Amino acid sequence: MIIAIDGPAASGKGTLARRVADAMGYAYLDTGLLYRATGAKVLALGLDPSNDDAAITAAEKLVSGDLDGEELRSEEVGSAASKVAAIPKVRAVLLDFQRDLARTPPAGKRGAVLDGRDIGTVVCPEAPIKFYLTASVEERANRRFKQLQEKNPAAIYERVLKELEERDARDSARDVAPLKMASDAIHIDTDRLNADAVFNAVMAHIRTHM
Ligand code: C5P
Question: Which of the residues 10, 51, 72, 78 has an alpha carbon 20 to 30 A from that of 115?
């Protein structure tokens, strides 16, 4: 059993996916972390994340289990992630890894929840339950800014907004697996919904469709 949750950066996918996975006793895979780890590896070498060879080598190392302890949650790594994510061979290297995890969840788990940009369209188009979360870019920047401010009081809202806009544009415009709602996904606009309301709506849908 696979549940796919897609949407743009900071749309609340991660929080929702983790809660749904816990409630269902499923494994959770944050696929953005794979692109972030690939981007972080390239940055750690002082190379350009848009450089095909560097990004492909980093993705291959990652799927063969070479994990470093880099910080993955920063906006800088998010930007690098969206650059490596536009390279078709990087996506191909990470695709099988994601599918294997989704289709063969760890022992004791009856299914998997995956979140990302292309889970419902490319990674697991067969998933019987798909959600597509959106919120305005201002609302998403606001949420991300508040999170960042807890760690770094010098965070600047305008900068967070600009980075999200750039990332949205890159993720939507790329040729391979662009950010797009699957035709059979349920669309949830989270602008006026808090995390509990989104979770309750999603769980109600899952319960009636299982
Ligand atoms: O979800 P998160 O913001 O951590 O993802 C970081 C970047 O990784 C995204 O901006 C996107 O470019 C890329 N990504 C992707 N496909 C996925 C998940 C993430 O292209 N399934």
Answer: 51
Residue 70's pLDDT is what?
80
CB 85 within 8 A of CB 176: no
34 Cα–ligand 1 center, Å: 8
Class (C level, CATH) for 2-200:
alpha beta
| 21 has binding-site annotation | no
Q: Which residues of the chain have pLDDT under 70?
A: none
Distance between CA atoms of 203 and 19, rounded to whole angstroms? 10
* Ligand 1 atom with minimal separation from the 84 CA: 12
| Nearest alpha-carbon partner for 134 in 4, 10, 2, 3 | 10
Q: How far is the C-alpha of 189 from the C-alpha of 37, rounded, in Å?
A: 29
* Residue 117, ligand 1, Cβ within 6 A: yes
For position 152, what pLDDT does the model report? 87
Read off the pLDDT of residues 118-128 as tens digits, 9 standing for 90 and up. 999 999 999 99
pTM: 0.96
Asked whether residue 79 is marked as a ligand-binding residue, the answer is no
**Ligand 1 within 6 A of CB of 131:** no
Answer whether 134 contacts ligand 1 (Cβ < 6 A): no
